[in-house]
Amino acid sequence: MFTGIVQGVATVESLESRPGLTTFVIGFPEDSVAGVTIGASVAINGTCLTVTAQEGNQLWFDAMQETLRMTTLGLLEPGSRVNFERAARIGDEIGGHLLSGHVHTTARVVSREQPENNCTLTFEVPAAWQKYLFPKGYIAVNGASLTIGDVADNRFNVHLIPETLRATIFSDIQEGDEVNIEVDSQTQTIVDTLARMGYDRPQA
Known about the structure:
Elements: E1 8-18, E2 21-27, E3 41-44, E4 47-55, E5 58-64, H1 65-70, E6 81-86, E7 105-113, E8 119-124, E9 138-141, E10 144-147, E11 151-152, E12 155-160, H2 162-167, E13 178-183, H3 185-196
Antiparallel strand pairs: 1-2, 1-6, 2-5, 3-4, 3-6, 4-5, 7-8, 7-13, 8-12, 9-10, 9-13, 11-12
């Protein structure tokens, strides 16, 4: 499990693509992977991956074809910057909301507005995921737990403070980019349960 509090930004050092599998070598900031073990879980842009090897501050991860298809990991290349979070431990503070690291879908950035001291990003998700979008609800974008601002059909926005921009790759994101989305599990459960009972959410 993860908390949605991004612990920093890492960089893709290299990758090797083979039939059905891509191996990523990712470099992390000094001391951020201290104590990591082979088999540990790390969220890369919100996608839970397993550590397969380590050398200093570099970690190796394998991503299957299905993972590449369902997420934006297939778009990464050497030099790409990514958000990362190591798996939560019992007793850790949950500063965001609980995440599984299983990406549900991707979204496209449709606008970026950056007035002084804040930034508003607007995203568009596939229509099938619109029913899980609620103003002031939780959502994870590239592994970061964020509060939804406004919702209009299958579009929603988030408002980011300077610290969030500094600590994540949101400072890099521009209109047209794709991001990973994990909807809030509690919201998904409630919406799906009501739908099974015949109380489907009216579509705008």
